[in-house]
Amino acid sequence: MSRFVDTLVATAAGGGQQRGMVTGEPKEPVRRTWAEVHEQAKRLTGGLVEGGLRPGTPVAVLAAAPALIAPTVQGVWLAGGSVTMLHQPTPRTDLAEWAGDTVKVLNMIGAGLVLLGEPFDALAPVLTEHDIAFRMITDLLDAEPLAEPVPVGEDDLALLQLTSGSTAEPKAVRITHGNLYTNIKAMVDRAEFVFDQDIMVSWLPTFHDMGMVGFLTVPMTFGVELIKITPVEFLSGPLIWPALISKYRATTTAAPNFAYAIVGRRLAKVEEDDAYDLSTLRIALNGAEPIDETAVKTFTDAGARFKMPPECVFPAYGMAEATLAVSFAPLFTGLTLDHVEADALEADNRAVPVPEDDPRRGTDEVRSFAVLGRPLDGLEAEIVDGEGKRLGEREVGEIRLRGEAVTPGYLTVDGPVPTQDENGWLATGDLGYLVDGQIVICGRKKDVIIMGGRNIYPTDIERAATSVSGVRAGNAVAVRIDAGTRRERFAVVLESKLAGDAEAERTLAKEVAARVRDAVDLRPYAVVVLPTGSLPKTPSGKVKRAATAVQFADRIHQSAGH
Fold first, then answer.
1. What backbone phi and psi angles, to 5 degrees, belong to 331?
2. pTM of the full structure
3. Tell me, what's the pLDDT at 164?
4. From the CB of residue 42, how many other CB atoms can be counted at a distance below 10 Å?
5. Strand runs (DSSP E) across 496-554, as ranges?
6. Of 284, 289, 288, 287, which Cα lies nearest the Cα of 299?
7. Which residues of the chain fall below pLDDT 50?
8. What integer pLDDT is reported at residue 142 of this predicted model?
9. The CATH homologous superfamily of the domain defined by 3-231
10. Given 3.90.700.10, 3.30.70.1230, 3.40.50.12780, 2.30.30.100, which CATH number is that of 237-408+429-446?
11. Which is nearest to 199 in space by CA: 219, 225, 222?
């Protein structure tokens, strides 16, 4: 049996009898111990095995309620299957298009079955129409429990994690039982988890790796108390998040940049100083690349009034290709920024530090990046140049990873694709450097804009654009045009409430172009102003640069003509 399944079963018999998962907040909170979740999972396993599920079969799951998802995914693992969390349609989704995409994903992973739960049980007719085999989760939970888990090995697949890439073609990361156990064990060790004392709060979607692996699989495997709500519940009233941290004395949470910014702004408007108590928080994980220092500051400044220690901010680097986590910043040190010379970075790929008392700090001559800690146990990182030669400290190149948590490969519509070279290295596509063995990320290789022999990072352009009044925070995208040619240029596409007023749009575009030119000494080819909610984003809320370039190509060229 794999170490992962062994641990799940042992937890249910041990600490899982005291600790568990709370769902249904704030209206109807229900708590089940992990032992009770395990009993439900065994019934679901029984139903799957009785229905003819063979070991090694990929099973897709489409449900939103965490109370259903937890026993379902555990039940699939106990039955020897692998889990794929399908991307969920929203009220705005075109269902015919969604069904087409879903059929493509199911064919790609070779899924024998979709397990359906609320609120998506209403999609049953759509699945039937497309000849997709499915079973209702609630029906399976009434089956006879399976006494013993189906045996699985370390190299058997546990998860097929769909990536939220910028291309239309789906891709799934193959995560084995060995990958999963290695990474979740390394995470709890580095975060110094005390299983019977730590308490986790999460609203992250389970179809995203952080929500699925970090904030469901980790607590379920090791028996940590978890309070789990859905993204919809968070977005409909963001202050539910600090309210749950207060109510349950939570120690651990995680979110992307935009959520920290939203909650920071909402907390700042709360009138009563004792409305929340955030003093127990020791880990507020932020795994966005790049980490937005403004969003972090908004959150920590507002949280201070509610006794939140600013050092709880926990920068991390992660990717599904390494199961989830690559590196964690040192515990309780907060957000540490590395300030470097812009010229040396852009022209020579060197991260030359700028001392604290240097007057250039805070000007356009200096760039700052979050320090993301050392690789977790079982992972090693190196920085290489374009020819694959290993670089030294503070030399910028592509980050490569190797170790037990690194996936053996992808599944694509054209078949399996390996992720590792002959020496086991995974090329991440991220550009960065090392400082005292700690990882610093500058940006994505594919997004870097090369002009006049300089490497311009889109984040520097985006930061400059969003500093202009009228641009929605976190909603400006720098995109490459004519990439790889001698005419390579860039445009800025942004969201603003001023969209639709031609005169205001023109003024805003001019201000953004001037501010960007000050920051990076280059003028954008075009600035496009869009209404709120227009930019394409990943399920976790990150903007998609490549998709933005394609979707708004005509608008970019029209704007350049003005």
1. -55, 140
2. 0.93
3. 61
4. 24
5. 526-530
6. 284
7. 166-167
8. 93
9. ANL, N-terminal domain (3.40.50.12780)
10. 3.40.50.12780
11. 225
